[in-house]
Structure formats: C-alpha cells, structure tokens
C-alpha cells in the first residue's frame, strides 16, 4: 500500500496542478491614475491658499494704514490746538503747559517738523499794546518749547494782536477765546513721527 501511495503522490500533484491551472484567476486591472487631475487639484489648492494669504496681508496693511492715518490726524490736531491765556497774561498756566508738553513730545519725535506760533489778544487795550501782548504770548510758548529741547530754529513767532479774532462779541467768553497762541505747521508736516 505504501508503494501505491508513492506512485499516487506524483499523480496527485499533477492532478492538483491541472485543476489549479484550469481555474484562472482574474486579477482586477487597476484604474489608471490621472496624475494631471491630481496635479491640477493641488495647484488650485495652492493658488487658493496664496490668494487667501494675499487678501489677509492686504487687510492687515489697510488696518495698519488706517491706524497710522488716525494717529497722524490726532498728532496734527494736537499740534494745531491753540493755547489760551488769562486776561493781560502771557505766561502759560497749568492747562496751556499740558498742551505745550504734548506738542513738545510730538516735536521731539519729529525733527523735521517746523511751526509758526502766532500770538493773539482780545480787543481791550490799544492796538500797539495788544500787538506786543500777542508777541509776548508767542515768545512765551516758544520759550517753553525750547526748554523741552525743541531747537528755536524750528519755531517762528509772529503776533496779530487783536487783528484776527475768532469771536467778536464783547463778552468774557468771547474775549477768552481771542487770548491765544495758534500753531501752524510750516514744514515737515508729512514727516510727523507717531508712536
């Protein structure tokens, strides 16, 4: 029986090989890879991300520009705001000194900025007296700013006395608005340095 088994073994192997060959396996054909579509999709995604980053950058720049323009407008308003004086006075009281301190800070940061300081008076007193009082007020403001480190060469002074009133009524509320020094930017206004 073992001999029969030995003779049957090769026959069995041949039979199994024949049966295995008769059942052909059909392997699925892989779908063709469309590399162009994948590359297009990746390129479009990259373009979209780049455009989003560009838009974000433009929005940040616009926001910074808007903030800077606001700061410049505030600095110009601070520089242009007049300083008021008491009746027959030319020395700045505490409130005008605070305004002059703020102006001095801007002037120190902006070395190209030049100003004209014009002194004014109300209409009480003679023309000559009011012209001299306006000059003393402008000179007092200049002296205060130079004490803050602003070179006098960057500050011009003039006096209009009672010639350019902002109010013409004969009331203290009106006269107090005419006793002033006005500040005009005459150079470097586009070079103001903000914080």
* DSSP strand count: 4
Structural class: alpha+beta
Side-by-side strand order of the widest sheet: 1-4-2-3
The CATH superfamily of the domain at 62-191 is known as: OmpA-like domain
**CATH class descriptor name of the domain at 62-191:** Alpha Beta
The CATH architecture classification of the domain at 62-191 is 2-Layer Sandwich
User: How far is the first residue's CA from the last residue's CA?
Assistant: 108 Å
**What is the helical fraction, as a range of percent?**
55-70%
Radius of gyration: 44 Å
Uncertain segments: none
Q: Helical region count?
A: 5
Largest sheet: 4 strands, mixed
User: What name does the CATH topology of the domain at 62-191 carry?
Assistant: 60s Ribosomal Protein L30, Chain: A
User: Strand portion, in percent?
Assistant: 5-15%
Averaged pLDDT, please? Answer: 86
Question: What would your notes on this structure say?
Answer:
The chain has 195 residues and is of the alpha+beta class. The chain has a domain of 130 residues: 2-Layer Sandwich (60s Ribosomal Protein L30, Chain: A). Helices cover 57% and strands 12% of the residues. It has a four-stranded mixed sheet with strand order 1-4-2-3. Strand 2, helix 4 and strand 3 form a beta-alpha-beta unit. The longest helix is centred in the first third of the chain and has 46 residues. The radius of gyration is 44 Å and the shape is rod-shaped. The N and C termini lie far apart (108 Å).
């Amino acid at each position: 029986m073992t001999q029969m088994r030995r003779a049957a073994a090769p026959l069995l192997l041949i039979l199994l090989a024949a049966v295995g060959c008769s059942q052909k396996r059909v392997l699925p054909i892989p779908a063709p890879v469309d590399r162009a579509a994948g590359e297009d999709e990746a390129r479009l995604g990259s373009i979209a991300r780049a455009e989003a980053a560009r838009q974000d950058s433009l929005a940040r720049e616009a926001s910074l520009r808007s903030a800077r323009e606001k700061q410049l407008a505030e600095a110009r308003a601070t520089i242009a705001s007049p300083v008021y004086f008491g009746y027959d006075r030319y020395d700045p009281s505490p409130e005008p000194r605070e305004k002059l301190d703020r102006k001095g800070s801007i002037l120190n940061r902006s070395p190209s900025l030049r100003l004209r300081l014009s002194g004014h008076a109300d209409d009480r007193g003679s023309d000559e007296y009011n012209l001299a009082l306006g000059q003393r007020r402008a000179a007092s403001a200049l002296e205060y700013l130079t004490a803050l480190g602003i070179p006098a060469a960057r500050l011009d002074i003039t006096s209009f006395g009672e010639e350019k009133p902002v109010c013409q009524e004969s009331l203290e509320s009106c006269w107090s608005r005419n006793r002033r020094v006005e500040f005009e930017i005459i150079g470097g206004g586009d070079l103001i340095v903000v914080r």
